[in-house]
Amino acid sequence: MSADSQMSLLAVVQFALHADVPSGVAIAGIDAVAAIADYANAAQHDTSNPIRPFSDAISRFQHRVLHTMLFGSIQESMLTPLADCLLALIFANYSSFCEAVSAVGVNVMDSGLVDLVSSVNLNVSQSANRHRFRDAVAQFVRTCRPLLQVK
């Protein structure tokens, strides 16, 4: 398993086990971890393994996380675990991340999400870049939540 895959698994597990995470999101996170692990294990033995179950589980979890960020009752302290989780999910499957963003009714080019998506192209192993990503997630939540809740 690659270092990025291991980082993805660790971040999702840490997020799913965080005390403030709603149970539905935690369950979706555990499903996503299982799907990542199953996919990584199968890919080592069978190069023709279909990616669909993996992609579907990641997409469901991304949607849950984004929906919770934007519509749920979350505390400021949740932004760092959310940022770590989203970073892991973007590494796992970038296209389904964009689909999940659209599914919660947010234009990918809106507000802080532009910074969030652009920071994915950075070397996130560098501490400063991880902080930039976290700041972009926090700004995205602060900007979009009030607008979406007014509707």
Q: What is the CA-based Rg, rounded? A: 15 Å
Largest sheet: none
Q: Report the portion of residues in β strands.
A: under 5%
Strand element count:
0
Shape: globular
Topology of this protein?
Layout: H1 3-16, H2 23-45, H3 52-71, H4 79-92, H5 94-103, H6 113-119, H7 127-150
Helix pairs in contact: 1-2, 1-4, 2-3, 3-4, 3-5, 4-5, 4-7, 6-7
Overview of the molecule:
The chain is mostly helical and 151 residues long. The protein has one domain. It is globular, with a radius of gyration of 15 Å. The chain has 7 helices and no strands. The longest helix is centred in the C-terminal third of the chain and has 24 residues, at 127-150. The mean pLDDT is 59. The protein has helices at residues 3-16, 23-45, 52-71, 79-92, 94-103, 113-119, 127-150.
